[in-house]
Amino acid sequence: MKNHTRPTKTKEHRRCFVLLALLQCLAACQDNAGMSPLPNENAAYYWRTTWSLDSTELDFLSRHNITKLYCRFFDVVMADDSLPMPNATIRFPDDWSAGVSLADMGDSANGATEGDAAERLPEGMELVPTVYITEDCMHTPAATLPAASPSEKATVPAGFPAGEALPAKLVNRILQIAETHSLPPIHEIQIDCDYTLRSRKTYYDFLNQVRSEAARHSLRLSTTIRLHQLSMPAPPADYGVLMVYNTGDPRKFAERNPILDIRDVQPYMRYLPDYPLPLAAAYPVYSWQRYIAGVRVEHTVDSTEITSVKHLVEKTRPDIANTIITYHLDKENIKRYNYETYCEIYRH
User: Fold this and answer.
1) What are phi and psi of 295, to 5 degrees?
2) For 98-234, where are the alpha helices, taking DSSP H only?
């Protein structure tokens, strides 16, 4: 009787491993393929507490074909009584009429002046109400029912009314502000929060409720995504905006730019290709001024750093180039970079 050597299973194990890897890759591709891609669109954040657009800003919107403004409506912060309350609400003109054509600005024959434009949204521009929520608000259950603060009870729109859950209060307050100031129809709202592992569950529960409330009014929901949040499960929203700024440690400003440094962005790129949410990208065009040991320090980002990071992000995930946003719209920020730099930032 011949002795038969037992066949090794090395090849079989390798085949199984390769097959499993292919199946996982296919599943990931199918998941991403099932996501509706964002449209090719240029946008900007408006992060001031008073609405006003001057001729420089109007020209910038026109020259770079910006069709969407993410406008900060108000913040939500923890009040002294440990309840979430609205704060720093934006001030709009009492009666805002939309529809000024950017092509007509400055044309005296059409009767349009810069003063008129300051109180209007350019024709074809979509306004997305954006609410910044401090992370400590998500340390309490999302169903907390805060009462209106005395300082806001006398204002219209008022603070959060009693008797509603926080998500409903937030959506209704946005709609009330829009109605009070005759703003154009709202199609989407955005929530901005620097959530952490500690607050993620509460924040996602909160977003689910906001999304349901928004759907009652036929509104989409988007949310911001910071680089460190890419390693977590995706939040329940229609899409996310990847904030490609504030990437460094401000305490180590002498070593790296705290606003943006490609070395701080690179470690997070491994999470980007398979992140299961449609993404837009927002890039910094602002400066940061602060005093350190009594000395005034101003942080700005070199234009080549912005474009290098943009190329890295888009190489890692090509569809993120569809919708491009700058933070934030301001005359001084516009003047900080030349026309060619902005063309490169907004290149799809």
Assistant:
1) -110, 130
2) 114-117, 150-153, 166-180, 200-216
Dist CA 226 CA 224 (whole Å): 7
Query: What's the confidence (pLDDT) of residue 101?
Result: 54
Cα distance between the two ends of the chain: 72
Q: Are residues 279 and 239 in contact, defined by beta-carbon separation less than 8 angstroms?
A: yes
**Are 326 and 283 in contact, with CB atoms under 8 Å apart?**
yes
pTM: 0.84
* Residue 295 confidence (pLDDT): 84
8 A C-beta contact, residue 279 and residue 241: yes
101 burial level (CB within 10 Å; 0-12, 13-18, 19+): middle
Query: Cα separation of 334 and 53, whole Å?
Result: 13
Q: How far apart, in whole angstroms, are the C-alpha atoms of residue 274 and residue 261?
A: 23
- Close Cβ partners of 130 (under 8 Å, ≥ 6 residues apart): 45, 70, 71, 72, 73, 189, 190, 191, 192
Minimal CA–CA distance to 190: which of 167, 217, 163, 223?
Answer: 223
Quick one: which of 309, 310, 286 has its CA closest to 299? 286
- Please name the residues in contact with 208: beta carbons below 8 A apart, sequence gap of 6 or more: 236
Average pLDDT of adjacent 10-residue blocks, the chain of 348 residues:
48 50 42 76 97 95 98 94 90 69 44 53 93 93 48 48 82 96 94 96 95 97 98 98 95 90 98 98 95 87 98 98 98 97 98
What DSSP character marks residue 8?
A: P
Closest C-alpha to 240, from 173, 127, 310, 325: 325
Helices (H), strands (E): how many in the chain? Answer: 10, 11
Token reading at 173: 């307050």
Distances (CA, A) of 58 to 77, 278, 286, 326, 334: 32, 29, 18, 15, 11
Structure tokens at 264: 């701080």
Q: How far apart are the C-alpha atoms of 242 and 281, rounded to whole Å?
A: 5
Stretch (H or E) spanning 163 = none
| DSSP code of residue 224 | E
